[in-house]
Design goal:
By secondary structure, this protein is mostly helical. 59% of the residues lie in helices and 1% in strands. The chain is built from 15 helices and two strands. Its cofactor is Mg(2+).
């Protein structure tokens, strides 16, 4: 496979040419980020985690994964068991946090989408980051649930006729198809509001300062500087013919990566991480957040609706700009591999055993099939 050289791809929107969202620890604006330059098909260099398998993962309806170990002779991290255990903990916490009560209809709608399954990647990232910096899972669980509530809100709203107009989500009819557009909008609103309440009320054993800092990170990630910004630019870009890679990166860094970044940063803050560790994990999360969307773009044009559990090919139908559309599927795959490789470099220096879940999650995001 030939090297990719897209030259001046990195413009003002590059995720590492902008300052970190943290006020206490700024990233250098001059740090270049162009994963597509000098990208070749050569094997990725070692990252100091040789004992951790490279995970080629496909979640089934039971939230399981298929693992492929590159180093079977060495002790491996059991990603399948880890994800099942974490997903079970998260699902139980979500079920308890949003019980059925009056008015029943709105809670039914909230629970319908919130408990519909899914891979729980974002809340697991939150818990893994917390434990990496020495925190306890229980302290970060409310924040992890809040991230999943907000993610679910974004899916409910994204599926509405005024947005992507989708009928299928996680293999089931979308929320508005079951409860109507009015209730779907309100269910998303309710999940968004309750997410912040849940962090404040249910987080135990964490200083007020860290909780406030976490709330600020979460709010910024989904507002007009985060998810909403990405959604607006995405909608405004439909049908445009002059959209470049910098424009596309802006969409995905805000629409998809911002909430993934928040999940990791919240876990690190609540877990007691120092500023340096929080910012290193922030950069890791930005890489895997963009990676998540690049892989999504690839899967949208290479998998069926049945395989994805959602409508395949909808970006093509909506004439949306995607990485395969701009640079082709093969170069998109090269880009994804470079993002994966660079994300793992940022985990060097952490305890390899504690970092194993994040290494495996980065690999899962890169190699997932739905």
């Amino acid at each position: 496979m030939a090297s990719v050289n897209l030259g001046s791809w990195v413009q003002s929107y590059s995720i590492f040419n902008q300052a970190s969202r943290s006020k206490s620890f700024l990233l250098p604006r001059s740090l270049p980020f162009n994963p597509l330059i000098n990208l070749s098909s050569s094997t990725s260099k070692a990252h100091g985690f040789a004992s951790v398998p490279s995970v080629s993962a496909v979640f089934t309806e039971g939230d399981t994964v298929k693992e492929e170990e590159q180093h079977p002779q060495k002790p491996s991290f059991d990603f399948k068991s880890y994800m099942i255990q974490k997903a079970t903990t998260i699902n139980q916490a979500l079920d308890s946090a949003v019980p059925l009560r009056d008015p029943v209809k709105i809670y039914e709608a909230m629970r319908y989408s919130l408990l519909a399954g899914g891979k729980r990647v974002r809340p697991v990232l939150c818990l893994a980051a917390c434990e990496l910096v020495g925190g306890q899972e229980s302290k970060a669980l409310p924040a992890a649930c809040a991230v999943e509530m907000i993610h679910t809100m974004s899916l409910i709203h994204d599926d509405l006729p005024c947005m992507d107009n989708d009928d299928l989500r996680r293999g089931k009819p979308t929320n508005h198809k079951v409860f109507g557009e009015d209730i779907a909008v309100l269910a998303g609103d309710a999940l968004l509001a309750f997410a912040f309440e849940h962090v404040v009320v249910s987080t135990v054993g964490v200083s007020h300062g860290r909780i406030v800092r976490a709330i600020g990170e979460l709010a910024k990630s989904i507002g007009a500087e985060g998810l909403v910004a990405g959604q607006v630019v995405d909608i405004s870009s439909e049908g445009l013919t002059d959209v470049g890679l910098d424009h596309l990166e802006f969409i995905h860094v805000h629409k998809t990566a911002a909430l993934l970044e928040a999940a990791v940063v919240l876990g690190a803050i609540i877990g007691g991480g120092c500023d340096e560790d929080v910012e290193r994990l922030r950069k890791f999360a930005r890489y895997i957040g963009l990676l998540f969307q690049v892989v999504d773009d690839i899967l949208d044009v290479t998998k069926s609706s049945k395989e994805l559990g959602k409508t395949a090919g909808k970006d093509l139908v909506a004439d949306k700009v995607t990485y395969p559309k701009l640079i082709g599927i093969e170069k998109s795959r090269e880009f994804a591999e470079k993002l994966r490789s660079d994300s793992l470099e940022l985990l060097q220096g952490f305890d390899p055993e504690k970092a194993a879940p994040l290494v495996a999650l980065a690999n899962y995001i890169a190699y997932r099939q739905n």
